[in-house]
Amino acid sequence: MLELRNVVKTFGKNVRAVDDVSLDLPAGVVGLIGHNGAGKTTLMQMIATIARPTSGQILFDGVDIVKKPEAMRTRLGFLPQDFGVYPNLSALEFMQYFAALKGVRDPARIRRLLEVVNLHDHAHRQAAGFSGGMKRRLGIAQALLNDPDVLIVDEPTAGLDPEERLRFRHLLSEIGFRKLVIVSTHIVSDIENMAGRLAIMNQGRLVACDTPDSFVQRARNQVWSVTVAPEDYEALRKQVQVLQAQRHADGIMLRIAHPSSPLAGAVPAEPTLEEALMTQRYAVRDNAELAA
């Protein structure tokens, strides 16, 4: 469905925000993972045709959307991380305005989407008075107006309460049954039960793309559990990558990322997806330090 071939985005003379990324994405939910500045937002902006790559190709159903951006724009839903509302419009008027821009002429669809994001009772309130979470939900609704074939959402659950996050994760999972959904997030729990693939970026490069189960499988025998005395903790955490520390009556229970047993008494622990991704991140960082 979507192909990225050697995509590069350069700012100035030497800053490569996206560095030679190649990726094939069929329908389904893809989680885009990486620290701030890893290049995730720049990559999504190029897919959404908001920014142009310096070099490389982005193909959607075989069409180069760099040369023909309308091939993507008519089939795209996009929710950026910073989403604003027009202060004088109600939620309903806001949706009607975006529906007109997108050529959507079905008033019933607007009402259905406001129900989906739990804003139907606030349809006639001015959106400027909404909480951050309510504005986020309105942004989600507008992104779905044109029933997009590709949905790109950047930090979609920021500001949502747990119930709303659960509802939205379920919605994205259902959309991903038949369409491509690209989700950028720092919250692993938002994607671990809905993403079929995870793409990890670091310093503009794509360093791994695989299924959640494969990342967990790869991290087995690299996550360790051990309990240490409180007085030994500070020195130990300077020597190894501590994933989790929890105080107990008999000491401090640690979960540690390490390619082999980090100290006497450590036993292998079944990694969570979050720990598996952190293990991957540490491996990338260590390899970069060795190369330097």
Automatic annotation (TrEMBL):
Classification via Pfam families: ABC_tran
Record CDD domains: ABC_drug_resistance_like
Keywords carried by this UniProt record: ATP-binding, Cell membrane, Membrane, Nucleotide-binding, Transport
GO MF, one example: ATP hydrolysis activity
Keyword Membrane: yes
Entry annotated with the keyword Translocase: no
InterPro entries in alphabetical order: AAA+_ATPase, ABC_transporter-like_ATP-bd, ABC_transporter-like_CS, P-loop_NTPase
Domain of life where this protein originates: Bacteria
Transmembrane domains' residue ranges: none
Domain ABC transporter: 2-228
PANTHER family referenced in this protein's UniProt entry, alphabetically: ABC TRANSPORTER, ATP-BINDING PROTEIN (PTHR43335:SF2)
Family, similarity comment: Belongs to the ABC transporter superfamily.
Name of protein: ATP-binding cassette domain-containing protein
Organism whose genome encodes this protein: Duganella alba
